[in-house]
Design brief:
Layout: H1 2-21, H2 33-45
Length: 66
């Protein structure tokens, strides 16, 4: 159980490093759900980021009907 927890922590730490390298933590002012989603998915992808995984999230909010 402890080894699994250590592996998960290392995996997520590497994901944070990958997100930092891509510049996702720079202060850009207004944050959108797409930016937040991309940071979260990049972090979860962990070391896969260095194997070519480039996760991106889009948040299309539908317009209200008239």
């Amino acid at each position: 159980m402890r080894i699994g927890a250590v592996i998960i922590v290392i995996w997520l730490a590497l994901g944070v490093v990958a997100a930092f390298q891509r510049g996702y933590f720079k202060d850009t002012g207004d944050a959108s759900c797409a930016e937040a989603g991309t940071v979260i998915i990049t972090t979860i992808a962990g070391p896969l980021n260095w194997m070519g995984v480039n996760p991106k999230i889009t948040c299309d909010i539908p317009e209200p009907s008239k």
